[in-house]
Amino acid sequence: MCIDVVAGVPPDTRLRVGAQALANASGLHVRRSVDEAGISFQFSTNGICSCGLMGEPRDGFPETWYLDAACLDGLATAVALVAKGARELHFCARWLGEEIKPPQGVTLVQLVALIRSNEVRRNVPYRVRARG
User: CB 3.0-4.6 Å disulfide test: which of 25, 27, 55, 96 passes with 74?
Assistant: First the structure.
């Protein structure tokens, strides 16, 4: 099993940033994909899967991921860049094969703070909507 850390926007979003710019800003590998659900960016340290973002394991199987502290600021910066100009942003760190929990609405400021403070919940899709 793998962890998948992804930020995405609806298909009609005119992005101001691409995968290479996100990689440069975050220090991470960033892979872009497009499908009927929209445009998404997967974040990793190796260009393959997001498992390299994991820090030392916590006891048991916690509800909150423990990501490598060295990746947090770069990941938060990249997610904020994806959100610029988007009417909606989705972010999720999920364990592939596990059930996804109900989406949680947050502001971009709250999401960035969750990432920077290493409090991203396992399998919870966060949804940020632009004010308007």
Answer: 27
Cβ atoms of residues 86 and 13 within 8 Å: yes
d(CA 129, CA 127): 7
Tokens of 9: 């926007």
Alpha carbon 31 to chain centroid, angstroms:
12
- Give one DSSP letter per residue of 44-86, joined into a string: ESSSS-GGGGB-SPPSSS-SB--B-HHHHHHHHHHHHHHHTT-
Token pair 């990793």: residue = 44
CA distance 25 to 98: 30
Whether the predicted pLDDT of 99 surpasses 80 = yes
> Dihedral (C-alpha) 21, 47, 115, 125: value to the nearest 10 degrees?
100
Domain residue spans in the chain? 3-129
Q: Give residue-wise pLDDT tens across range 9-62.
A: 999 998 889 999 999 999 999 999 999 989 999 999 999 889 888 887 666 667
**In terms of pTM, does the model score above 0.85?**
yes
